Amino acid sequence: MGLFDRFRKPxxxxxxxxxxxxxxxxxxLATERGEPYVEIISVDIDPDNIGxxxxxxEWNDIFLAKLVRAGYEGRTDEDIVxxxxxxxxxxxxxxxxEQYEAxxxxxxxxxxxxxxxxxxxxxx
Length: 124
Description:
Helix content is 35%, strand content 23%.
């Protein structure tokens, strides 16, 4: 080792890039606000049977607790959320059916009655 080796200027320390802060998700933001959160994050459709498919849901613990307080039960968190989602889907179908029935009345027992005025009714 030479005389000047002991007095060598140290190599500059390279600045480490600051870690990028991860952008908070909608779920994280709702949880921080103490709000329930649920979202459909993907829909998979069977290409061979367009009427079949699956939904992937994401939720926070606040939403799950709300479901449990509302009476939903299950062995796993997924079971509880699945029962809720089935209820939502069932209600959509029932509402659609009721609207259809209201706009397309069917004759009762195959007999259709029509008021033709003057106290008279047409039966067919």
